[in-house]
Amino acid sequence: MKKLDRRKFPRIKICNPISYDSVNQNGIQLDQNMGIAKDISLNGILLETAQKIQSKYIYLIFVDMENNLIRIAARVIFSVKNKKGNFKSGINFQGSQEENSRFAKKVIQAYQHQKSESAHINSASI
Fold first, then answer.
1. Cα-flanking dihedrals φ and ψ of residue 8, to 5°?
2. How many Cβ atoms sit within 10 Å of the Cβ of residue 44?
3. Who's near 18: CB < 8 A, 6+ residues apart?
4. How high is the pLDDT of residue 59?
């Protein structure tokens, strides 16, 4: 039986390093860590981490192609351990529609740039 996909927006496969700050309900930082974004949509992201994200509330942070620090408030919806022992967490952006869209687009642009740079380096070394 096929699982019903209830997502509002399509997912785009990516592979980007992303930092996150875990915070409590009052926005006080509890810890800081990193993960790899595995896919993204206009309202959320799938993040793979070495340890379980302990807080429900986080800030996702990354540096865009112009070296700007891009940050958005987010909420952890689920976190499951995979076969490799890492955790995959479904995260919902908590910004305005415009902020969510801007964050997603910047992450996708950075991934596409990184991918094209990697392809260029690989073809140059052949």
1. -80, -30
2. 21
3. 34, 35, 36, 37, 45, 47, 60, 61, 62, 107
4. 97
What is the pLDDT at residue 73?
97
Kindly give the confidence (pLDDT) of every residue in the chain, 126 residues in length, as a single tens digit, with 9 standing for 90 and above.
Answer: 555 556 678 899 999 999 999 999 888 999 999 999 999 999 999 999 999 999 999 999 999 989 999 999 999 999 999 999 999 999 999 999 999 999 999 999 999 888 777 665 555 555
CATH number of the domain at 12-124, out of 1.20.1440.230, 3.30.499.10, 3.30.9.10, 2.40.10.220?
Answer: 2.40.10.220
Tokens, residue 85: 């022992």
CA separation, residue 55 to residues 13, 25, 52, 83, 90 (Å):
25, 9, 9, 22, 13
Strand partners, 80: 88
- How many whole angstroms separate alpha carbon 37 and alpha carbon 51? 14
Taking a C-beta distance cutoff of 8 angstroms, is the pair 52, 85 a contact? no
